[in-house]
Amino acid sequence: MNRKRINRISEEVKKIVSELLTRGLKDPRISSMTSITKVEVTGDLRYANIFVSVLGDKSVKEETLEGLESAKGFIRKEIGNRMDLRYVPEPIFHLDESIEQGIYISKLIDKVNKIDEDKKGNPDE
């Protein structure tokens, strides 16, 4: 299938699921600090791999994924209602921790830079 079309469908699914997270899902397990970072629809349009970023500790992340898994049918139905596709992709949720890893690496770089500046400022060492 045309890669351009798959990318457009992926972006539309991302938009729909993001909107559902903010307005449509009432599950208390789903954290309000949840965002969709990326959606990859397979070439046959059967599955949508949805990458979710959740701010919080491990238990909050697990509860959010459980809530999303239980709402999977509703999310698929809403995707089908809002998009005109022959096959509505089955949502598969994955936890995306790339934002947290980026923040961690940024803090490490800042720490190393501070140590380096301290050594340059003190020539005795």
SSE inventory with pairings:
Elements (H helix, E strand, L loop, with lengths): L2 H22 L9 E8 L5 E8 L3 H13 L1 H11 L7 E6 L2 H24 L4
Parallel strand pairs: 2-3
Antiparallel strand pairs: 1-2
What is the CATH architecture descriptor?
2-Layer Sandwich
CATH third-tier fold name: GMP Synthetase, Chain A, domain 3
Class inferred from helices and paired strands: alpha+beta
Distance between the ends? 62 Å
Helix-strand topology string: HEEHHEH
In total, how many domains does the architecture comprise? 1
Approximate strand percentage: 15-25%
Major β-sheet profile:
3 strands, mixed
Rg computed from alpha carbons, rounded to a whole number of angstroms: 20 Å
The mean pLDDT is 90
Quaternary structure state of the chains depicted: single chain
Helix proportion: 55-70%
Q: Give the CATH level 1 class.
A: Alpha Beta
Low-pLDDT ranges: none
Strand line-up of the largest beta sheet: 1-2-3
Number of strands: 3
- CATH superfamily (homologous) name: K homology (KH) domain
From the spread of the alpha carbons, the general shape counts as elongated
- Helical stretch count? 4
